[in-house]
Design goal:
The structure holds two protein chains of two kinds. By secondary structure, chain A is mainly alpha-helical. Chain A is built from 18 helices and no strands. The radius of gyration of chain A is 23 Å and the shape is globular. In chain B, β4 and β5 form a beta hairpin. In chain B, α5 runs parallel beside α15. The longest helix of chain B is centred in the N-terminal third of the chain and has 25 residues. The N and C termini of chain B lie far apart (72 Å). Classes of the chains: A mainly alpha, B alpha/beta.
């Protein structure tokens, strides 16, 4: 079920109605759990079974790990959890990719091997909920946490519908304590939650789908080579589109959870105001980057094993992070480019003399814009459907091999892209050390009304073609 | 997030939110209401967006065991030329579904009905001789595949609500979205006038040619049909007959369940008809269809009452003519015993 659909509004109204009935806390949690399964089943009913498998496997594994006396048993159950979760993920998401690459390798070695494609449907949100359940088991394996006492709470944690299909990736021990006591939900919190939901829909429907997606598609989805301006405008438009799409989803999720009395972690912190790439990753898809840091980069040794190992660990983390997004080499290259950016940044920090110059606002703005443009270049590989298209775009952006006859974009497309991108970057810069709550808290009521009315009107009059959230495919 | 947030949290949650939301919703209603009145006063009327999901919604209503059901297949002609309202009036007890798809030859949808359903009613399939060529066999397959693989009950329910809103509000029409309005204004220096073509929730379409420059539209149609025929030249009649014969199993499959397939040639007029005849002479192509496929055929030129209708832009009827044309077709169906009716209204 999409947040930007009428059925979701009806679904949410029904769930909210049931949730606000004068029933016990346990019954309320049951309402949320059943609603979450309905939410997931609305996409493809049989796949709810996968959610149950992942839930049960980690519930059992975590308890066995905690109660095991022998280290071997602990390891066996950790491996069991990894095998179930990563096995499901690999089977549904990467089977065809692995098969294709294996057959390429075979044929390269002159062994004729042409297996049929499996063409499996990728279960919605599988990358998100498998990472969630894994974090629970790993935290217990590391003896950082104890198994949760309530299966209902745990099942709700895995399936909680606001964040089920596209995050934020919530850690178990961030969410589970919230299940202990019924939240005291004030009407102001519901109003704030609905305001966040409106903001999320505005970002998704009006900006990402209504204004930017057509510009991106006009260049990326058409055969032929664009000119340099077209390639740049389309790529910058995509930078705005993916932010508004994904941050829009996360903001909706946070708002909906808030209405139900739950707090979800922030997933974006105005990333296009980042100065440098490590700053970017502290602001972009925070729940994934911190997950990869805690469950991959640090276990690999982090930066504790010398310069070379640090570099290898960074690169591995970024490559796997890239692959997590999709079964394609373009995503791996996207991760690799970010790995290289992080190396370059470390090197720059080492050789650049320490100076008060770096604190000057114009220098910070320059560095921030340089970060943004570099991130845009990496986005080319993220957006392009094939490696060939990505190279074509990079060539066009660099002025090599571009089409002199035009870009396929109208002047209006370019004005929209330029205008929207300028507003996004300026707002990110202005908000870089602030929060939405802070801004909303300072606004007089009537100004909040104007902003809300503006966003709601824009949703109606700017909306374009219905599109699923980009991150649903991951 | 900065630690200072907690104090702001208190402030954001203690604001006058009731007043804020009420004022916001009132302002939205005022602005959107004003826009709705403005567009309607300019002659705009609401219309539904015809997409794969809407097709899937109607396709999901095809059921087995309904011998009196009528499914309309084809492309834009059957959407514009037949009035669903009149069909429902003449055949009040029938489940009548419009499954035509604009711009695509219909045999993939016919194959879907034959092979994937237990449909046992009447298929009225608007088609031209060109549509029997093998190369166009899968034209509508993307819709069929969408219905079978992507469409879900949730999506169809969403589409139902969406259609309801689109049927009642002009402001949600994609034709009137801000970006399109600006593009249009830059191009012509004025805001768009009312559409000449609207789609209803039952997927029929109404064309009002009085609001456009009909001569330009006619020229466009003639140019377009020439391009289509020249880009896809007809196969020789003998080869074409082999292609058409391949449809027989589909017709027989529906017939074996008690259903009937009727291939209908809907009108084209003037130069358009002359070009149709030049590329696909009726005697060599259309007149063989019944023998080759085992289906019933109806050609507009053969039926009194159907041949008199004129397509203003060469290929489709005006909304004012669609009811009369539909009655003439229904009368022919009844006359030939294809469909029974208690009494003609």
């Amino acid at each position: 079920m999409l947040f930007n659909s009428y059925t979701f509004i009806i679904f949410f109204a029904v769930v909210s109605g049931l949730y606000s009935l004068p029933i016990g806390w346990r019954q309320k949690k049951l309402v949320l759990l059943c609603a979450s399964y309905v939410f997931y089943a609305a996409w493809n009913p049989p796949f709810v079974a996968l959610l149950w498998i992942s839930t049960l496997a980690d519930w059992i594994a975590a308890r066995r790990i905690y109660h095991a006396r022998r280290e071997t048993v602990r390891k066996v159950f950790l491996l069991f959890s990894l095998a179930v979760n990563l096995g499901l993920l690999c089977f549904f998401k990467y089977a065809d990719f692995l098969l294709e690459n294996f057959s390429l390798l075979m044929n390269w070695m002159n062994i004729s091997y042409h297996p049929a494609k499996l063409n499996l449907i990728i279960p919605l949100g599988i990358s998100f909920y498998t990472f969630q359940t894994l974090s629970y088991t790993i935290d217990i394996y590391r003896r950082q946490e104890r198994p949760w006492h309530s299966f209902l709470d745990y099942a709700l944690y895995v399936a909680f519908f606001p964040q089920l299909v596209a995050g934020p990736i919530v850690r178990a021990f961030y969410f589970l304590p919230q299940c202990l006591e019924p939240p005291k939900i004030k009407s102001q919190e519901i109003a704030w939650g609905l305001s966040l939901f409106t903001l999320g829909l505005f970002l998704k429907i009006a900006i990402a789908d209504g204004l930017l997606a057509p510009v991106v598609e006009a260049v990326y989805d058409l055969a032929g080579t664009p000119d340099a301006a077209g390639a740049w405008f389309a790529t910058i438009a995509f930078a705005g589109q993916i932010f508004c799409d994904f941050a829009g989803y996360s903001t909706c999720a946070i708002g909906i959870a808030k209405c139900l009395g739950f707090k979800l972690p922030e997933n974006f912190n105005f990333p296009y105001a980042a100065i440098g790439f490590s700053d970017f990753w502290r602001r972009w898809h925070i729940s994934l980057s911190t997950w990869l840091r805690d469950y991959l980069y640090i276990p690999l040794g982090g930066n504790r094993k010398g310069v070379l190992r640090t570099r290898i660990n960074i690169m591995l983390t970024m490559l796997i992070g890239g692959l997590w997004h999709g079964a394609s080499w373009t995503f791996v290259i996207w991760g690799g480019i970010h790995g290289l950016y992080l190396f370059a940044e470390r090197l720059f920090k080492k050789i650049a003399p320490s100076s008060s110059l770096w604190n000057l606002i114009p220098v910070k703005i320059f560095l921030s814009l340089a970060t943004f443009m570099s991130v845009c270049i990496a986005w080319v590989f993220f957006r392009a459907d094939t490696f060939e298209v990505a190279l074509l775009m990079i060539k066009a952006m660099s002025g090599l091999g571009c089409n002199p006859s035009g870009s396929g974009l109208t002047m209006l497309d370019m004005i929209i892209t330029g205008g929207v991108s300028l507003v996004i970057i300026t707002l990110h810069w202005w908000m870089r050390s602030r929060s939405l709550e802070e801004i909303a808290g300072r606004m007089p009521w009537w100004l909040k009304s104007v902003v809300l009315a503006g966003m709601l009107t824009a949703i109606v009059i700017l909306s374009g073609e219905d599109r699923a959230f980009i991150y649903f495919q991951f | 997030m900065p630690s200072s947030i907690s104090s702001f949290n208190d402030r954001v949650f203690s604001g006058q939110w009731g007043r804020t939301w009420i004022a916001a919703l009132f302002a939205v209603a005022l602005v959107l209401g004003g826009m709705e009145v403005y567009w309607r006063s300019g002659g705009h009327v609401p219309g539904v967006v015809d997409d794969m999901e809407l097709w899937s919604l109607h396709r999901s209503r095809v059921r087995g065991g309904e011998d009196d059901a009528i499914v309309l297949l084809g492309a834009s002609r059957i959407q514009l030329d037949l009035s669903m309202e009149v069909l429902r009036e003449i055949f009040p007890d029938s489940n009548i579904l419009q499954l035509a798809i604009d711009g695509k030859h219909p045999l993939a949808a016919l194959r879907d009905l034959a092979e994937n359903t237990e449909f046992s009613g009447i298929v009225l399939c608007s088609i031209t001789s060109m549509g029997f060529q093998r190369q166009f066999r899968d034209d509508q397959q993307d819709y069929v595949a969408y219905f079978r693989k992507t469409s879900t009950v949730n999506r169809r329910l969403n589409r139902l609500i969406s259609s309801f809103i689109q049927e009642h509000l002009v402001i949600v029409d994609p034709y009137l979205k801000v970006k399109r309005l600006i593009e249009r204004y830059i191009k012509s220096g004025k805001l768009p006038g009312p559409r000449y073509l609207i789609t209803l929730h039952d997927r029929s379409r109404l064309a009002d040619y009085s609001v456009i420059n009909i001569e330009n539209q006619y020229r466009y149609r003639i140019k377009r049909i020439k391009e289509i025929y020249e880009g896809n030249p007809p196969v020789p009649p003998e080869k074409w007959k082999a292609h058409a014969e391949e449809i027989r199993p589909l017709v027989e499959k529906i017939a074996s369940r008690g259903g009937r397939v009727v291939f209908i040639r809907l009108p084209s007029s003037g130069e358009h008809w002359e070009i149709d005849e030049q590329f696909y002479p009726r005697k060599e192509y259309w007149d063989n269809i019944s023998m080759l496929t085992g289906a019933i055929t109806i050609h507009f030129k053969d039926v009194d009452g159907m041949e008199k209708f004129h397509c203003p832009e060469g290929s489709h009827l005006d909304r004012r003519d669609a009811p009369g044309f539909t009655r003439a077709l229904a009368a022919e169906l009844i006359k030939r015993g294809i469909r029974e009716v208690k009494s003609l209204p």
